[in-house]
């Protein structure tokens, strides 16, 4: 059957090694050198790595210690998030010259719906080129882009010709593109799920597409429905300019394990201050406070409580975090503490769902100039 999917032109713009590239731009002595943002110290975790560092296998979320083993000449730089936010705002202003439908995913990537755009250009491919050229000339950084009929395909496409490139997946090519794709490249399918799919003989989009709705739901639960639709090019998620924040958090990994609650309280004071600052900057408050504890053996524990009123004040956040810390005995020394606020006082998100008869075959028939 044919779906009633709306026809959209979606661009996913992804900055190239954003944090590292900003550091190299601001400090020319770092250009061309293997660079890691964050990751300093025995317990540090890397936030971003330059392409020179990635050649050695260094990547984000990797421990600084491992990164040093992979690249002996690696340079560590402390993150400057205020600077990254400043650059991100410059880039966002460029986006808004083309469309008001901009959905930021983070400081370095965003979706743009240019179906109807401010410059009246029918080609999303040309718009993406113009945006990338302006980012380079006005900001000094390179960006990559993916262009297609929905957010899912556009995001996958943006990774194809990195760095400083773009890929368009035209409507008539979407199904073949997804069938040929290794399932490890499907956005949202992580290492564990990919391994499970491999064990079941699912290696490509074509293999995934061959499985029935019932099979996928049986073996992958609620995610099975999602996989059934996306491999058929069906995703009706709109670009939402005002994404609703569901939680706000801050955490710290310590250079040495903490076994004294006195030292932990000192760390919680700094974390509560950061959470309060972020809440106030975003002009939101929350009712549910969660304390995150990661022990030296890497086991993770969370403790939560919901208040009858909204909070964003540091003193109140810290008071409740302390209560959660003392709620139960700590089973080991602690390597990480975090505080998050959820149940925020923002409007509830609304979503549009695509209704598809999952017992019938599905095809996407879109004719559109991209």
UniProtKB/TrEMBL annotation:
Binding site for Mg(2+): 14, 108
Active site as annotated: 109
PROSITE patterns noted in UniProt: UMUC
Record's catalysed reaction(s): DNA(n) + a 2'-deoxyribonucleoside 5'-triphosphate = DNA(n+1) + diphosphate
GO molecular function, one term: DNA-directed DNA polymerase activity
Classification via Gene3D superfamilies: 3.30.70.270, 3.40.1170.60, 5' to 3' exonuclease, C-terminal subdomain, DNA polymerase, Y-family, little finger domain
InterPro entries, alphabetized: DNA/RNA_pol_sf (IPR043502), DNA_pol_Y-fam_lit_finger_sf (IPR036775), DNA_pol_Y-fam_little_finger (IPR017961), DNA_polymerase-Y (IPR050116), DNApol_IV (IPR022880), PolY_HhH_motif (IPR024728), Rev_trsase/Diguanyl_cyclase (IPR043128), UmuC (IPR001126)
E.C. designation(s): 2.7.7.7
Cofactor note: Binds 2 magnesium ions per subunit.
Entry keyword set: Cytoplasm, DNA damage, DNA repair, DNA replication, DNA-binding, DNA-directed DNA polymerase, Magnesium, Metal-binding, Mutator protein, Nucleotidyltransferase, Transferase
Domain UmuC: start-end pairs: 10-190
Site entry: Substrate discrimination: 19
Main location: cytoplasm
Family: Belongs to the DNA polymerase type-Y family.
Biological role: Poorly processive, error-prone DNA polymerase involved in untargeted mutagenesis. Copies undamaged DNA at stalled replication forks, which arise in vivo from mismatched or misaligned primer ends. These misaligned primers can be extended by PolIV. Exhibits no 3'-5' exonuclease (proofreading) activity. May be involved in translesional synthesis, in conjunction with the beta clamp from PolIII.
Quaternary data: Monomer.
Official protein name in the record: DNA polymerase IV
Gene that encodes the chain: dinB
């Amino acid at each position: 059957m044919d779906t009633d999917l709306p026809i959209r032109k979606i661009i996913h713009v992804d900055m190239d090694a954003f944090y590292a590239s900003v550091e190299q731009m601001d400090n020319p002595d770092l250009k061309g050198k293997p660079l890691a943002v964050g990751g300093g110290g025995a317990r540090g975790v890397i936030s971003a790595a330059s392409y020179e560092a990635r050649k050695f296998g260094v990547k984000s979320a990797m421990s600084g210690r491992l990164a040093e083993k992979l690249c002996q000449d690696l340079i560590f730089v402390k993150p400057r998030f205020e600077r990254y936010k400043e650059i991100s705002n410059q880039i966002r202003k460029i986006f808004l010259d083309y469309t008001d439908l901009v959905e930021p995913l983070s400081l370095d990537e965003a979706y743009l719906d240019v179906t109807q755009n401010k410059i009246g250009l029918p080609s999303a491919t040309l718009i993406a080129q113009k945006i990338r050229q302006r980012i380079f000339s006005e900001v000094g950084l390179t960006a990559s882009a993916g262009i297609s009929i929905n957010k899912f395909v556009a995001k996958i496409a943006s990774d194809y010709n990195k760095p400083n490139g773009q890929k368009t997946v035209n409507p008539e090519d979407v199904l073949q593109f997804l069938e040929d794709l290794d399932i490890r490249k499907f956005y949202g399918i992580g290492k564990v799920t990919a391994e499970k799919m491999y064990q079941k003989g699912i290696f490509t989009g074509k293999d995934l597409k061959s499985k029935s709705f019932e099979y996928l739901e049986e073996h992958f639960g609620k995610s099975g429905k999602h996989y059934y639709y996306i491999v058929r090019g069906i995703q009706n998620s709109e670009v939402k300019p005002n994404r609703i924040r569901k939680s706000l958090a801050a955490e710290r990994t310590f250079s040495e394990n903490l076994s004294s609650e006195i030292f932990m309280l000192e760390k919680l004071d700094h974390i509560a201050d950061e959470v309060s600052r972020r809440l106030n900057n975003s002009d939101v408050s929350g009712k549910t406070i969660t304390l995150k504890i990661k022990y030296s053996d890497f086991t993770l524990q969370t403790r939560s409580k919901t208040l009858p009123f909204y909070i964003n004040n540091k003193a109140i956040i810290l008071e409740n975090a302390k209560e959660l810390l003392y709620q139960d005995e700590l089973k080991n020394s602690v390597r990480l503490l975090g505080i998050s606020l959820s149940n925020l006082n923002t409007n509830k998100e609304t979503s549009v769902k695509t209704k598809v008869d999952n017992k019938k075959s599905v095809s996407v028939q879109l004719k559109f100039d991209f």
